[in-house]
Amino acid sequence: MKKGLLHRALIAMALVTLLSPLALTALAQDQMQDQMGDKMDKMSDAKVTVALIRADWCGACQKVDPLLAELREQYKDRINFVTLDVTTDEKTAEAAATARKLGLNKFFAANKKKTSTVVVVGAKNKILYQTVYNFDRNAYVKAFDEAIAKTS
Questions:
Q1: Nearest one of 41, 50, 115, 119 to 85, comparing CA atoms
Q2: Model pTM?
């Protein structure tokens, strides 16, 4: 009897040891999704969102990234910026989930293979400006300013 009980206890301990990392991973993912959901809720309150579809392997993205980083800093209080990374299948799936939460799922589905695409979205997810392979800072400034003016 004691031997059977000891055997069951060892099996239970082994299962706990094997399943604990999975439970912690699931918990961490749930917490990240909650935090992402909070961020998305805050972003949806904003009037203008700029989304970039990019990938690490995209040469045009390497050129547009620093430009948008500079503009992100300049417009940080007036525009929400979101990056939809399609570098890998896993990142593409995450980007699709982000786009869905922002109401940009149709846009993302239609453009996910067009890296370096930048879109400016106003109230009610209306696309106000869209461009690809654009490295003209002045064009972005004009588009951002017009979007802010339209949604104010």
A1: 115
A2: 0.70
